[in-house]
Amino acid sequence: xxxxxxxxxxxxxxxxxxQYLEQDRSIDAIGEAASxxxxxxxLRDGCWDLVILxxxxxxxxGIDTLRQIRLEHPDARVLVxxxxxxxxxxxxxxxxxxxxxxxxxxxxxxxxxxxxTVLAGRRFVSASLSELVISEFDEPTDQPMHxxxxxxxxxxxxxxxxxxSATEIAAELAISVKTVSTYRTRVLEKMHLDTNADLTTYxxxxxxxx
Length: 210
Fold this sequence. Notes:
With 210 residues, this protein is of the alpha/beta class.
């Protein structure tokens, strides 16, 4: 019987997801983690078949945690359940090794369908995300500039676009200021932009700050 670890820094979200999971008698054990550090420690201490992972968490973002899970626990399946819209992160996290992505505004039935799909060893994509994926392959020459960014670079783009300093970003993402500067340089180069103001304008035009 499968076991599931819920990784989200909001107690109400963890409680709600747990209640849905407890209705499925096929699930053997349910655990909780409130940060990236707790998530990784939980995986080291026990065997979890599925990690339900939020993107915005303290002590290591969900994206960093996903990357570490892939390195340390390649057999663990990860379903990202996030408050961010699919168009902002979904394709990036799927490329990063997640088995599925679900926005938190979806119905409970959709959440449980995603859980069962991923536990069965398949990838889960919602109907709307499927359209995004198809669109990406159908129109490779018409992709927005930010589609070239890695998940971490996209995070830094969003932070810079709202006016956060390198020091603030470094603290939020648990990386050095120098690393933030490196990511900023990469983002500007990949997107053919010159300044943080250009990033803000681009983000607003493309709905990345919603």
